[in-house]
Amino acid sequence: MTVDPERRGVPLSGVDAASPPCVLLLHGPNLNLLGTREPEIYGTATLGDHVARTEQAAAEFGLTIEAIQSNHEGELVDAIHDARGRCAAIIINPGAFTHYAWSLHDALAAFEGPIVEVHLSNPNAREPWRHTSVVAPVASGSIVGFGGLGYELALRAVAARLAERA
Ligand code: CA2
Q1: For residue 105, what is the domain's CATH number?
Q2: 122 in a domain, yes or no?
Q3: Which residues participate in catalysis according to the annotation?
């Protein structure tokens, strides 16, 4: 693998070493509407803003971001499958799927790299039905309640985990 010496590169094993390691950034339902409604809960940044912020953090570590948003559970499952053996890590905000989509749990369980669950709001401080995450048990960790900063923190956590594995 070629690492830009100006960057804090993340060595990898088990993924395609020919190109810069990718991190799959997944977003679930309705998150395409960020910035248009409920700014008091989710802030004013758009999904594009969050992706750009994560890309910027990734560049520091010689990582690239592959960003996918879908309102369809099966498409997210397919994206996770497609990342196996190809992407180094996954950062996922599954939206409301967090609370009941066991297919995402199972797909993520079959992914070999670090997984970070991100939520803009703190679901544990909201309605009781948001207190359960079916993704958390198969994630390396969860970052909740810090708005867009959560994506940057997640990227740093991923880079640290990948460096440990090298
Ligand atoms: O806090 C988060 O990041 C959530 O994943 C956001 C989900 C919610 O179901 C989770 O409990 C916590 C909902 C995202 C809906 O976002 C919208 C944004 C603007 C307009 C409408 C929906």
Answers
A1: 3.40.50.9100
A2: yes
A3: 42, 119
